[in-house]
Design goal:
The protein is an alpha/beta fold and 479 residues long. The chain is built from 20 helices and 20 strands. Bound molecules: zinc ion.
């Protein structure tokens, strides 16, 4: 039984052949040396399936961009340890006060939370896609000089930016936790900018217990800067634009679509040209029957009515009763299925439909070990498919260095595929050294040693050759 997903056409899907094509114009225009995917990640409670789909999509986009555009890719996960751990009301002013996860639990506890929620899954997704990732907490991010200077820069435009980050009240939520108790006024009603210049700014804030205190922020001062979500994203994206070494692609859940206009306006106010704004990819939202976003906290509080037909593990991955390997496999399969057609990816899913799709895969018997896909030029693809090319040559990108003997590689050229198994990997210092040591007939029986050397140098410039040269000996797998 094959799976059928029915998705109507949309303006965006109609314009694309492949889901990944949404990134093509920017990559073609900027010709980046490296593409970094950036994903924000909650740590206040176990993630549900929507979060995992977004994270998995980041890995698969990074894999495809690397394979199709021949550029190094990696992922940066931002763990939001500034989420409020507790909120209380000041009985006198009736202002809300909050304390962050970081300040309540401390660094070690935050590290073990990210470890518990994400590290296992991320390393499995990384092994399967050969995409490297790192996790940075918000606390680390706010202490970085570029983040703090970028924040100070926004103060010059605060008169206009404050309405973008806080459209209803115009009061920007800039929180400096009280240095004595770490509580901060949630909506910053009594936080005031006293003075500022290019390099530093002084604020006065009010603690319900310790009264007025002042905070001086500069690139290396140690006061903690906490910001509302919109404000934080403006600073974050502004820093990403300033980092010219990489093209940054932000992967966000689809519910962010409604908020991004505010960020774009603010980035414009900060002097960023529209063609420099980061690229954003929105992943499908998972909805309930009413069309509301599936919310774990609302379900927990009993405010969201979920029929009994929802599999527990969709809400709580801890309820998954098979191996973690199978969970990662299911996620990858599902996101690949959605990405197989732009109409399937740039839309939302009810949890029932998502469940139907995922259960379809669970019901299929599968003994195929993880397969890595590699895109390749037509003329080499033909030789591999004919079985005459049994040595493939690549340079030592970190992702390529992860390929191991015994692993399956699926070579792809447009719609054609050829499954192979790796017999051996040998690393050489240069193309010449490789050609001197290997049987060149197995690389390409139709051209000479010198022609092979020429082709390799044309495909890989010398700075890529310097990464090391990999000889991948293959065997075609009959299927
Ligand atoms: Zn205090």
């Amino acid at each position: 039984m094959s799976l059928k997903i029915v998705s109507p056409n949309t303006v965006l899907a109609n314009a694309l052949v492949h889901t990944i094509d949404i990134l093509r114009p920017r990559i073609a225009y900027t010709k980046p040396e490296k593409v970094k995917f950036v994903v924000g990640t909650q740590i206040n409670g176990l993630p549900h399936i929507g979060t995992h789909l977004t994270q998995c999509a980041a890995f698969l986009f990074a894999e495809q961009v690397r394979n199709i555009f021949k550029v190094d890719t990696s992922i940066l996960f931002g763990a939001l340890d500034n989420a409020p751990h507790e909120v209380i009301l000041d009985p006198e002013s009736h202002h809300a006060y909050q304390i962050t996860y970081q300040h309540k639990l401390g660094k070690n506890c935050i590290d073990s939370l990210t470890q518990k929620y994400y590290s296992n899954l991320f390393s499995r997704l990384s092994e399967r896609t050969f995409v490297d990732y790192e996790i940075q907490t918000y606390s680390e991010q706010q202490s970085a000089p570029n983040f703090r200077l970028e924040f100070i820069k926004t103060l010059k435009e605060l008169e206009r930016i404050r309405w973008l980050v806080s459209p209803s009240s115009g009061i920007p939520h800039i929180r400096f936790p009280c240095p004595k108790c770490w509580w901060a006024e949630k909506r910053s009603e009594r936080t005031h900018l006293i003075k500022h210049n290019e390099k530093e700014a002084e604020f006065k804030s009010y603690c319900f217990d310790h009264m007025e205190y002042s905070s001086v922020i500069s690139e290396d001062s140690d006061c903690y800067l906490d910001l509302s979500t919109l404000y934080r994203n403006i600073i974050k994206e502004s820093c990403l634009i300033n980092d010219k070494k990489s093209l940054h692609i932000i992967v966000k859940g689809g519910d962010w679509v409604f908020a991004c206009q505010q960020i774009d306006w603010a980035l414009g106010l900060l002097g960023h040209a529209p063609n420099n704004l980061p690229v954003r990819v929105f992943t499908p939202q998972i909805l309930t029957d009413t069309g509301a976003k599936l919310s774990k906290s609302l379900i927990k509080r009993g405010a969201m009515d979920i029929k009994d037909d929802l599999e527990n593990w969709l809400i709580d991955p801890d309820c998954w009763d098979r191996s973690e390997e199978e969970y990662a496999d299911l996620l990858i399969w599902t996101v690949e299925e959605l990405m197989s057609d732009p109409k399937h990816f740039y839309r939302s899913y009810s949890y029932k439909e998502l469940q139907r799709i995922m259960k379809h895969h669970i019901s299929q018997p599968s003994n195929v070990p993880p397969v890595r896909t590699i895109r390749i030029y037509r003329k080499y693809f033909k030789l591999i498919k004919e079985g005459v090319k049994t040595i493939e040559i690549r340079v030592g990108y970190s992702s390529m260095k992860k390929i191991k003997a015994g692993q399956f590689l699926k070579f792809i050229c447009q719609d054609d595929k050829c499954l192979t198994k790796v017999n051996r990997i040998t690393e050489y210092a240069s193309f010449r050294e490789l050609l001197d040591s290997e049987d060149t007939n197995k690389i390409n029986p139709h051209i000479s040693y010198e022609e092979q050397l020429n082709e390799l140098s044309n495909i890989f410039p010398s700075n890529k050759e310097a990464l090391g040269v990999l000889c991948i000996e293959l065997q075609k797998v009959d299927k």
